[in-house]
Amino acid sequence: MKKTFHRGAVGAAALALGSAAALAQTAPDTAAAPSLKEVTVTGNPLGTADLIAPAIQYSGTGLLLRSQTTLGETLDGTPGVSSTYFGPNASRPVIRGLDGDRIRILNNGGGALDASGLSYDHAVTADPLTIERVEVLRGPGALQYGGSAVGGAVNVIDNRIPREPQFDAKGGVAGKADLGFATGNSEKGGGFLVETGTDRYALHADVFDRSTSDVRVPLSLSCTQGGVTSFGNRICNSASNTRGGALGGSIFFDQGYLGASVSTYRNNYGTVAEDEATIRMRSNRYALEGELRGLGGFFQSVKGQFSHTDYQHTEFDAGDPKTTFKNKGDELRIEARQAKFGQLEGMIGLQVDNTNFSADGAEAFAPYSRTRQTALFAYEELGLSWGRLSFGTRVERVSVSSAGNPDIARFFVGSRDFTPVSYALGALVNLSRGWQATSNLAYTERAPKDYELFANGPHGATGTYEVGNPAFDKERSVNLDAGVKWKSGADSFALSAFVNNFKNYISLESTGNTRDTAGNGAGGVGVTDCGDGTSVQSGCTAGVLPEYAYQQVRARFTGLEASGTKRLLDGASTLDLELRGDLVRATNLDTNQPLPRIAPQRVGATLIWGQGPWGARLGFNHAARQDRVPTGQLPTDGYTLWNAALTYRMKAGVSNLLWYARLDNIGNQLAYSATSILTQTVPGRAPLPGRSLKVGLQASF
């Protein structure tokens, strides 16, 4: 992959930051420029103060100091959340052991369409540089977002469509610039946004750019590019260049707003499973959003969202294009909030999704397909003297059809129709002295995805031959979680437990057979032998691939999540201790074997100190050894990663500056992710990043 990338956005950010720094003078910590209204919407459609469903949000400095190059790594370490980690460039969140299309990635509450659920090497089309806030719903979000949120939802929130006026009738201008550099991957990144308007309109523009080189790791690895093999302490083919931007605006009126935005995302990165395989990605998204409030009558307000996404990426081998994936789709979402009737309040909604997928080339393992989904849903809450009850339902009509592929004869051609129905009940009980208890019971049905039904081909990212099953039924699950939480001043504590039973969980399982790349059987040679002297774990050679088939099995996921904060020092200086931990156990009940890629037991702690404009953090994340893996797969050793951060706030003219430094993996510990498929398919090839120092400056005005 080329190591020379575009620098336009970085240069613009550097110019803006440099001008601000030239005026800098030390001042006490000050308020930031106007920003988004802090309203949690994921799992909380009525905007009530206390959440019944387990959820967490990150914004501001907290988000900045955990931000990584991918959304999955940014959220990794949150109780109940890990990541798929396909190297530093492609990583989706894993919630309570569930990944892929059981976790819904949202943009401002609407669907974010890409191909990241199809394959682990496909990146999410959201860059942490552009995120104002991110919310994570743990547990089923299927009522609001469909069966693809059976494990949870991640809502990435920006202000590309302003929803509230930030300025009065005289108007104004606000903005933010971010510039950062890191040593571990030679990262150079920057972003800049500006907003202007009055109390009647608002305009938004942003641009970002990030480039990285191969990631440094604590051991020497081989790298063969251009026919030359070299060795070094870097993950081969892990460089990247990501850039994009958006324009948006809204018109405000007495009873609501109407806004639109257009955004683009570009990513050119290495897929670390192969030394010379790269992906060139582009996504264009067009969104329209509006809301009418204070309507009177039965409905209090109506909110509508519409988006169209045109996504494409091409996979290259040593610079030669091999396979092109395209995904185009529309989503319409309408929510109507009803007037309060006594202590009962709620909303009803309509969601319509249409997507068209195609793959052309040597590794087109899924056919051309079309998915159509229409859903009606309702959510109600009843306030009581002791707390709240919630209940709701969702009914969908899903059609998934395969048109085959004009160049590949082996694909199934036909369609399947499904009618998933989901229900949920929840309760929040206010106990004494700041304690609350919550419980949620959900029955969820999910229609199989197109690739789960129709896949039939070699998958280069996993080194396998994948086979779907057009006869699959709806995936059905029952989820129960219960928890307690407590808060008193700066101190807090939360503990939750969950169990998720699947009647027919769709799992990608080894059949013990092999096929060649054309789909012909190469003989049944056992789970660990490819028949040519190589193993499934190291990847089969000479065009022989281990066969993996999607199968419906009974499965159970159970787990615990805990977090807490204790104020140790309160005065001119503050000192807080944050604690966190989680445990997930997942079992294939048909075979009594563990399910693959499940995070081990994890614990972590962070000391957070603050005094005036200064802030500092020191903490660790520990993952236990994961040896509870399916037969034939490799265990993953435990590890402890230490990290630290230092921040300083100051005033520079009309700007507020935040200087920050973050040191990750202080001990340069060698570690591998148990939730990454690379740990099994190319063992030793893609460890977690080694020691890295990131320094940066964020300016707001």
Written description of the protein model:
The protein has 701 residues and is mainly beta. The protein has a single domain (8-700), classed as TonB-dependent receptor, beta-barrel domain (Maltoporin, Chain A, Beta Barrel). The protein has a 22-stranded antiparallel β-barrel. The protein has a 5-stranded mixed sheet with strand order 1-6-7-4-5. It has a two-stranded antiparallel sheet with strand order 2-3.
In short:
The chain has 701 residues and is mainly β. The protein has 6 helices and 36 strands.
Mean pLDDT: 89
Q: CATH topology, which one?
A: Maltoporin, Chain A
Largest sheet: 22 strands, antiparallel, barrel
Number of domains: 1
Radius of gyration: 25 Å
Identify low-pLDDT runs: 1-39, 524-539
CATH architecture: Beta Barrel
**What is the helix fraction of residues, given as a range?**
under 10%
Number of helices: 6
What general form does the structure show? globular
CATH class category: Mainly Beta
* Helix vs. strand class: mainly beta
User: Per DSSP, what share of the residues sits in E-state strands of 2 or more residues?
Assistant: over 45%
Distance between the termini: 38 Å
Q: What is the CATH superfamily classification?
A: TonB-dependent receptor, beta-barrel domain
Number of strands: 36
Protein name: TonB-dependent receptor
GO molecular function: siderophore uptake transmembrane transporter activity
GO biological process, one term: siderophore transmembrane transport
Domain TonB-dependent receptor plug: 67-153
